[in-house]
Write a structure and sequence with these properties.
The chain is an alpha/beta fold and 758 residues long. It is built from 26 helices and 27 strands. The strands form seven sheets. The chain has a nine-stranded mixed β-sheet with strand order 2-1-10-9-11-12-13-14-15, with helices on both faces.
Length: 758
């Protein structure tokens, strides 16, 4: 049907019973169909209306990626409200400032942030119920029909110390991206049917326009499935891709860099030079078949965006036989300007402009964009244009601030940036002025200039300081980083040799290019620290020029979450240990890191036990219980979790046996009174713990639970009780046999798993 607003797009997929979103938060796995999500969105729209939130009102979404995020997004559009996405890693202080600017009527918060203290209505994402399917296709009657120029979103791109800068995105802006891509995909839908469903593992935040597009708009064009997971470690990413039969990975270049290091370590052949240049891709599939086995045979494509992709990183993944698709865009272009065609991708370029978008190169090399996808300007509460809107638009063209050129085929090649904004390896924007304000607020700083410094192919935040005599530079950086957002923190510093930083005549603006060239020359000429075997030596690779002491905190290092994953891999390599990503997050200082490295087993051996998981009837794709080992993942200690008892056949046998003979037999030995069932929550995760130990505890608890819980419980059993099964050489045959039968019976009929008591 014709697209005039995003609601037309919504109504087209709202009746599909295909799985839309799968969310694995490391405790449980939930999934929802297109029809279920549409019903939940309509219910949330009615809830907004009942709370007095309607057309033109602004609703902030401050949450990690999850099913409810997409429910809230469509619910707001159905209620004609404006969505204001905020990265869940954003500080509460910045959230309050954004809320004041947009005069928010409500704030939705996820589980990974703390509900802010505010007079604005705050709702928890977990309380947004996934409603049953509904056949209603009628928008809420109290809300006027939106036009294509109606505001859909306000996305803030600035940092914590400047006035928040919000980009206004209308229905027309987003549709200008959706419609051309949808038309192109329609040409290939008949070829995609044998591979249905196409699953996307999306590692970009939904608060980022590109991540939002690749989760909310592109998958429905294919009736595909979007998977959200928790964690960026390469073992976790591989686990999700392999176990969930992912077809497409959506990520930033930094994830690919971390993943490349892991693959080269696990499969040394992938680190060898490319000897198949120019050969058919089938030769690559055969030579690197171990890599395809590692990822799973359904995985074939990487969509990379939000930050520049280095040529050698793109070449590595292409060498292995994977398709790499990248594009170019900005928040102001909603977000796509150019895109490489998946089946005609050109190496080293970001593709051609999508339909309806014009690109030209200014005389000074700046990329200029024109089209209906381009924002009309930046948000201002009283409706007047923001002060910086006029400077970004001249003659009907949006000035991107990036430098590029068009090749003979009309494909765009990115050369660099004209404007001073820094783009981190995670694809987040950093304005130098924000970081400079934080530095200048510290005692002992006369002047500060911040530039982006290329280190190992990635842009890092570098501060050039003119300190007062005797000032502690480490303390200055530590204090500034404490006031900055995670992605804004200073990564390295240098001391300017003169009494003041170079500035222009008259306007006294910092000569950043001069600072950048000087800092890059100084860094490249500095002697490199030799990599040693101490924790400090490993950490020093990721904290350039910083003095490391036992009390130095992780926050002082200015590392992003992906930097920490890289550091974790380096520590594993240096000390031949296995570290857990969550345990690493709990390490606050260098001293904590040393303890973690010295006692990895104690930190990482506790298995993850999934509680009840609300799912559709029938055998779940991954039944409740401990997570099976990911390909390439090292087991913690000597624990080996059973996986066969989560097969559909085992699930069916357990589902039939429990109500027909196992639990009725147990009832003969029980006199049971059950109280408090009304206090059970609507969903898990939940731990049910008996206050004593008995073989009858498990059947007793299962009998007491309602059926909606009973068949979704995983039972922890003492590993020591099955010592003969796990230690056959030291046990006699008879002891081993009877103990093993007990073990397999418990695993089969009670969905049990072994848990060490030591």
């Amino acid at each position: 049907m014709p697209r005039t607003t995003l609601l037309d797009f919504f109504e087209d997929f709202a009746t599909s019973d295909d799985v839309f979103v799968v969310h694995d938060d490391s405790y449980r796995v939930r999934q929802v169909t297109y029809r279920q999500l549409a019903g939940a969105a309509r219910a949330f729209a009615a809830r907004l209306s009942a709370a007095g939130v309607g057309a033109g009102d602004n609703v902030i979404v401050w949450s990690e990626n999850r099913i409810e995020w997409i429910v809230v997004f469509w619910g707001c559009l159905l209620a004609r409200a404006v969505v204001v996405p905020v990265d869940y890693r954003t500080s509460e202080d910045l959230l309050h400032r954004i809320a004041r600017v947009v005069r928010a009527k409500a704030i939705l918060v996820g589980d990974e942030v703390k509900a802010p203290a505010t007079e604005v209505t705050v709702w928890q994402m977990r309380d947004v119920a996934l409603m049953p399917p509904t056949s209603s296709r009628t928008p809420h009657p109290s809300s006027p029909t939106p036009s294509d120029l109606s505001l859909a979103e306000i996305i803030f791109t600035s940092g914590a110390t400047a006035d928040p800068k919000g980009v206004t995105i209308t229905h027309r802006n987003i549709l200008a991206n959706v419609i051309p891509i949808e038309r192109e995909i329609a040409k290939y839908l008949k070829y995609a049917r044998p591979f249905h469903p196409i699953r996307f593992l999306n590692l970009l935040p939904l608060s980022h326009m590109f991540g939002q597009s690749m989760a909310t708009f592109v998958p429905p064009m294919l009736r595909g499935t979007v998977v959200f997971s928790h964690g960026y470690s390469p073992t976790e990413v591989l686990h999700q891709i392999h176990s969930r039969r992912i077809s497409v990975l959506v990520c930033v270049p930094k994830v690919l860099d971390v993943l490349r290091a892991h693959v080269e370590r696990v499969l040394p052949i992938t680190a060898e030079p490319d000897v198949l240049a120019g050969r058919h891709f089938l030769w690559r599939w055969w030579r690197y078949r171990a890599a395809h086995r590692l990822f799973g045979w359904k995985f074939w494509c990487i969509v990379c965006g939000a930050a520049p992709l280095e040529a050698d990183l793109e070449a590595f993944w292409r060498k292995l036989g994977f398709l790499v698709v990248q594009g170019y865009g900005l928040t102001e272009t909603a977000p796509i300007v150019t895109l490489n065609h998946p089946f005609r991708a050109s190496r080293g370029t970001v593709g051609t402009p999508i339909g309806g978008v014009e690109v030209k190169i200014a005389p000074d090399g700046e990329i200029l964009v024109r089209g209906e996808n381009v924002t009309s300007g930046y948000y201002h509460a009283d409706g007047t244009p923001a002060a910086d809107t006029a400077g970004a638009f001249e003659g009907g063209w949006f000035h991107t601030g990036d430098i590029g050129e068009l090749d003979s085929a009309g494909r765009l090649v990115i050369k660099g940036r004209k404007k001073e904004m820094i783009v981190t390896p995670q694809g987040l924007n950093v304005f130098p002025e924000d970081v400079e304000r934080a530095l200048l607020a510290q005692p002992g700083v006369k002047e500060a200039g911040v530039v982006g410094l290329r280190v190992g192919g990635e842009e890092r935040i570098h501060a050039v300081l003119v300190p007062q005599p005797g000032a502690d530079v480490d303390a200055i950086v530590r204090g500034a980083n404490a006031a900055l957002e995670d992605h804004q923190r200073v990564w390295s510093t240098s001391i300017w040799p003169g009494p003041s930083l170079p500035r222009t005549e008259g306007t006294q603006k910092l000569k950043r290019r001069e600072l950048q060239r000087w800092a890059a020359g100084e860094t490249s000429n500095a002697p490199a620290r030799a990599a040693g075997t101490s924790v400090e030596d490993v950490v020093a690779r990721f904290a350039s020029g910083r003095e490391l002491r036992p009390e130095t905190t992780m926050d002082e290092l200015g590392l992003s979450s992906l930097d920490r994953v890289e550091m974790m891999m380096a520590l594993e390599d240096a000390f031949q240990v296995t570290l857990d990503e969550q345990a690493l997050e709990s390490a606050k200082t260098i001293a904590d890191l040393k303890t973690l490295v010295q006692q990895p087993e104690a930190e990482g051996s506790t298995p993850q036990v999934a509680g009840p998981r609300p799912q559709a009837p029938g055998p779940p794709p991954q039944a409740p219980g401990p997570r099976s080992q990911a390909p390439g993942r090292k087991p913690s200690g000597d624990l080996k979790f059973p996986y066969w008892n989560r097969w559909p056949g085992a699930w069916l046998l357990r589902r039939v046996s429990l109500p027909t003979w196992i639990l009725p037999l147990a009832r003969l030995f029980l006199k049971l009174r059950v109280e408090g069932l009304d206090r059970l929550p609507a969903a898990g995760p939940v731990i049910f713990a008996a206050n004593h130990q008995s073989h009858m505890d498990t059947p007793t608890i299962l009998i007491a639970l309602p059926s909606r819980w009973r068949y979704r419980v995983a039972t922890a059993m003492s590993r020591e009780f099955f010592r003969a099964h796990f230690n056959r050489p030291s046990a006699g045959f008879k002891s081993w046999l009877t103990n093993s039968l007990n073990y397999f019976g418990a695993c089969m009929f009670f969905n049990a798993f072994p848990l060490s008591q030591g």
